[in-house]
């Protein structure tokens, strides 16, 4: 049941331990290469130069929101899954499809679903 | 008759002197005199009840009153009218629309329009207050007066009414049938001078109409001459009397008066009435002929007549002579009879009494009828001296009737002085108060007529205002003041007869034909009469009573008037010696119904000679017998009828016998006569006493009737008042007790039973005997005090310890004389009132308190409160609201919201209007208002309608400032989000720790222990952060928390400045330091007894900010080998976490003595 077979993943997560966990799950899901970034600026730089199949972005990175990054990624065809501690449906995260969002702490299954949804969504016109 | 009427009316002297027109001092308004006696109260009440209060008339009420009795009349009458009722005091002026009332025991007159009072001149019983007043009213006010005669007995008022009528006033009389006592009205009606006979209730209007009409005078008519002529013409047509020569002013006044009475306002109207109303001409005729007269009017003139004229008149007159007297215009005959009485008086002292013939003539048949009756009311005979009244009158009903002797002298007949031929050869003419009604022309022509009628030296007696029209050539003035004249000259004046007639064709024709017929019929009769007078023997005709019915001339030889009361009986009149013969022949003739003769009866002549007479009695019919006297010395009847009885007579014997009888009879008669005269005198005197007593009784009776009436009325009123009072006492709910002077119960109201155990029979018992719930002694003390001082007392009275509360008022009971005659106690139950008062006070306090509370609340409420009207003007605001508006409270009131708080106004205008319109509250309206450039406030606004009498008059606005609440809400939301974020991240971290730990540890106990420690370290820093509200945590604290479990024997040295790290830094560092410490404890410096750990840190500041450099230096560790350091999770964390999380660096190296790790990071 691997979803990310051979995929390059851009991971944005400011918490080291969570990033560690995410990397592990992503590997388990078949990711070939994982670029882990801990700050928004770093992720933005990577996104500009690197080529990714999918991105897993923490919404709140050191108090900064990652929506604009997600938007630029999507515009270049990179599906984005958000990971967040916020309640999705409420005020903190408007305009985000709940299917593309995982609530921390997430399980590998939940992440997989979200990633698949993201990937499927991006392939459709 | 061409004179201007105004001239006539104003020219002095033409108005007859004894008839004042308006009076010398006319009152302000017409004066109406009302006279009444018994039954008068009712009549007065009816009259005043019907009298309009604004008719502009003054009413003077004259009533027979008990002189000793206070009259209640004023009081009783005042209730019937809104006019002022005044009891008259002397010299009172007369005002319109007032009622004046005679006081008791006073005689009322009016002089110069002022009411005068005086004592009575006459004794009680002879007083005639109504006549007195009416007479003075007539004299003083003339045509400005009216009189009304109402119920009463007797004849008072009638004479006064005559005077009023004579003076041109109005005369009214109550209908005798409707009067309680009809004496006075009947007597007044009998004068024939009453204008109207009316029910009392109709009188006031009639009087008012009369005087109102009087103001529009007929004198002002431009064609008055034509009008009068038309009236005269009509009278001539209707009655055959011509008034065109009547004095014009009098005529005019009388006609106008008549018009007023009948209510005709224009001449045409009256003429029309004359033509259509059959009676009117007669009534006007009566009015024109008003001649008020009475017996011996002008006493002085009559005295002169009695003293000077009559003796002269009768001198040298014998029994065979006749005295002829003519009284033209005799009216109802008083003067004719007055003359007759004077003559009778003189005749009674004469021996040879001449026959007296008084011809009383007039044209007014109604008056003539009265004259024939010879019956007069008391008023007419007031001037007759008492002895004459006694002698020549007798009373019949209320009237005085003349005796037959006087009546026999007077012949009453209808004769028109102007039209008909005069009487002739009369000895005296009495013509009083007739000429004054005629114009000068006619007067001039009448004087010669009188001259013609009189014998030479005949007397003429005129009225006080008349004269002989300067005809001194034919009359001598005997006495100018008494108006007695005497004919002059022997030759008769030639007088054209009739004096003044333009005979109406019809009437004249009738008269002439009747006259000629009469003359033809009388012609043979004249011859027989001549024979009877001159050639027939003296004779009389007697009736069944032997009264002489007719007598021939020359009977004086046989008959004479006997002394004493005159009689017409032939047996009384016959001369001495003849009486028995006459009686005998009359008896014979009656019994046999045949002629009976008695011959040679000797009769004493006047000169003591004796003559012989034959007496023949010849029955004429059933009753009447012809008695013929024949002197025996004359021619013997040649042939006596065979059937005549003749009787011889032996004279001497008879005479002797008769003389004896006569003597005896005479002496008996004298004695009897003397006795009779004595007893007669006695009777007469006691009769006089009785009469006067009767008068007094009658008058007292009238007064009593009046008093009785008044009392009855008063009693009715008292009964009514008493019943009112009784009802009031029974129905009043106020306990009231009446006590007398000795504190005994006089009366009480039923309501007193709430306080006292009163029984009906307690009346009269002492007050203290009655069982009472109140304190007796207190009550009685109060009663005594009030009785003494007469001042009312008021006091509160508590019953049963104040369970009931009364206000007791003790008032003096005043009797009719206003003297204290006890006390009245009035108890007003005020228990409920007091309770209510207390409640009220309590409620007031409560309300005031509440109101204050509300006021305080209002002032201090942390919300803005305001009241606005429909135009959004502030009616009231509290301090808080004013604070919002940034104005004073006072400066806001009355201003428009829009001017003061435009931003708020925009939000409020619509809701306020809606609340006004719908009267429904609107709450929790949100409003975010920019108060100034940098101040935005959030408000919640409530609107409440304020209603007064179902109408919204204002809107209450509640303004809550929720700016801070809103801010806190936002903050809270942010915090919640943050918390969630953090918790989730922490949980994710923990999950990762668990995950990593599980991967690296195989042994379960070690796994659990490791997990607990790692999570515990995290928890410790959480604790530190929480203590600092998640702002920061002290580095030293973190280190100490981590290292304390291992710190023994001072192997750990911590050195560095106080550094406060933000949460992310603190947590990330905590994980790193925990792994370092765990490793040290497991393998490093803390695992060996000789090992030492130094942790040093410094903070540097450069352009990019602050940088922390922390050195972890372990020493004293033996056997340090890199192999022992497994590249596990812990090491990885140490090396990477700071770099990843904090973009710091980590220098991790193993030295000889142990691990040296330098962490560097910015914060």
Query: Mean pLDDT of chain A, as a whole number?
Result: 84
**Biggest sheet of chain B: strands side by side, in what order?**
3-5-2-1-8-9-10
The percentage helix of chain A is: 25-40%
Number of DSSP strand runs of chain A: 7
Q: Number of helical segments of chain B?
A: 32
Major protein interface: A-B, 24 and 27 residues
Uncertain segments of chain A are none
> Strand count, sense and closure of the main sheet of chain B?
7 strands, parallel
DSSP strand count of chain B:
42
Radius of gyration of chain A: 13 Å
Low-confidence stretches of chain B: 1-20, 497-518, 634-648
> SSE order of chain A in H/E notation?
EHEHEEEHEEH
> What composes the largest sheet of chain A?
5 strands, parallel
Helix content of chain B: 40-55%
Give the overall average pLDDT of chain B.
80
Continuous helix count of chain A: 4
How many whole angstroms does the radius of gyration of chain B measure?
A: 72 Å
Task: Describe what is shown at a glance.
Chain A is of the alpha/beta class and about 120 residues long. In chain A, about 40% of the residues lie in helices and about 20% in strands.
Description:
The complex is a heterodimer of chains A (about 120) and B (about 1150). By secondary structure, chain A is α/β, with parallel strands linked by helices. Helices cover about 40% and strands about 20% of the residues of chain A. Chain A contains four helices and seven strands. The longest helix of chain A has 16 residues, at about 110-125. Chain B is of the alpha/beta class and about 1150 residues long. Chain B is built from 32 helices and 42 strands. In chain B, the strands form nine sheets. A seven-stranded parallel beta sheet of chain B has the order 3-5-2-1-8-9-10, sandwiched between helices. In chain B, strands 16-12-11-17-18-20-19 form a seven-stranded mixed beta sheet. In chain B, strand 33 and strand 34 form a beta hairpin. The relative contact order of chain B is 0.04. The interface of A and B includes residues 19, 20, 24 and 105 of A.
